[in-house]
Every structure is written in C-alpha cells, then in structure tokens.
Design brief:
Shape: flat
Number of helices: 5
Distance between the termini: 87 Å
Helix content: over 70%
Oligomer: single chain
Structural class: mainly alpha
Mean pLDDT: 80
Number of domains: 2
Length: 145
C-alpha cells in the first residue's frame, strides 16, 4: 500500500472511531484526547466531515449534526429490536413503533424549521412594504393638508 493510501486508511479508521464515539455520546474533548486529535475543534470538524453525506445542505451545521446522530441512533435501536419484532414480541413491536414515530417527528421538525426559514424573508419584505406604504401615505397627507 502506498504511503498516501495508508494515511487515507488511517484517517478513515480514526474518523470511523470518532463517529462511533460521538454516536455513543462521548464529548469532543474526550474524543480528541483518546484518538490523538490536536484538540476539540479538530475532532468536531472531522466528525462533521464524516457525517456530511447524511446531512441536508439547508439547515444549520450544529442542528444537522445532532439530527444525523439521532437518526443514526434510532436506526441502530430499530435494528437491534427487529429480530424480536419478527418473532412477534409485542414489547419489541411497541418499541419499534415508538422509534418510527420519533424518527418521523425529527424529520417533521426539520421540515418545519426549513419552511420557517424560507418564509422569514417574505415576512420581512411585507413588513418593509407596510413601512413604505405608511410613509407614502404620510407624505401625501402632508402635501394635501
């Protein structure tokens, strides 16, 4: 294996371990210390790069990362419960239904936040138009009065 290929493999493995640790709830500082990152920010940046394919482009990065991690956790929980679901275990079925419901809520909330962000500009524009209309009316009143 060439030196650059070996380095890429090491980087990919460290990134995989960092994501797994973050997925498990480990803080960035600890991840940096345990995996040899220069600091908390470097660990955070590397994890964001690893999660980038799973994150929508429109939302804020911190929100995106958190959402991606939560969805990954829900996927893993559902996968763990699935064999019991297939055996007809009612508690496992209830658990999976709650996982699906939680996943849907996370996605609904993300969609609502995105729609809200898109609607913010028109509301501001309407407010600006209302201000202009009032000023024009005031000038007309002053000119005729």
């Amino acid at each position: 294996m060439a030196a650059s290929e070996e380095q890429r493999a090491k980087t990919a493995e460290r990134r995989r371990r960092a994501v797994a640790m973050r997925f498990a709830g480990v803080d960035y500082e600890t991840i940096a210390e345990r995996l040899g990152y220069a600091g908390r920010a470097a660990a955070c940046k590397d994890i964001q790069r690893a999660l980038a394919p799973n994150i929508a482009e429109d939302a804020a990065p911190a929100t995106d990362e958190q959402r991606a991690l939560e969805l990954m956790r829900l996927d893993r929980l559902q996968a763990a419960a699935w064999p019991a679901v297939l055996k007809g275990d009612l508690r496992a079925i209830d658990t999976v239904v709650r996982i699906i419901s939680t996943r849907a809520k996370i996605r609904r909330d993300a969609d609502a936040a995105e729609r809200g962000a898109r609607q913010a500009t028109p509301v501001a524009e309407v407010s600006g138009i209302a201000d202009l209309t009032e000023r024009i009316a005031a000038r007309r009143g002053a000119a005729t009065g």
